[in-house]
Amino acid sequence: MLSVFIFSNTRGQVVHHLDCGQKQTQREINTCAMQNFVAADGLLDSLYKSMVAEFSYARPEGSSDTTAPTPYLREALVQSQHSWYKYREDAGALISTSFDGGSAANAQACEYMTLMTLDRIRALKNLRNYLYGKQALSVDWDISRH
Questions:
Q1: 93 is in which domain, residue-wise?
Q2: Which of 72, 99, 110, 121 has CB atoms 3.0–4.6 Å from 105's, for a disulfide?
Q3: Which pTM value belongs to this model?
Q4: How far apart are CA 18 and CA 96, in angstroms?
Q5: From CA 95, how far away is CA 100, in angstroms rounded?
Q6: What does the alpha-carbon distance between residue 51 and residue 130 come to, in Å, rounded to a whole number?
């Protein structure tokens, strides 16, 4: 089943919409899945770059300003993002492998990696909100919604 994705930038404005439900051939499905992935990845890249820039202006050591990130936060974010990219690529390869080289392998891998990317966007937004004191961390144990 293919989905309709509506992507928004960090301000909530719609920037990309692809209706994959109208695709009929495997090539069209693969193309649509890749376009959705590229759109989601672009949103993630934009958010990540903005957070790296924000965290570059970290509070000086010893400062009592608790609303600014620590001096090591930028480095930790960069390292975690690189690890996450590797994890996403490995997960996509796992999905692709499960199709044993079939024609749907690329589309399924792209769709899975798109879902992972959208989850990462949410996670980074939650992290930023938490670090700036705009949101408390809470665990949602209802896994049926995920």
A1: 37-135
A2: 99
A3: 0.75
A4: 22
A5: 9
A6: 13
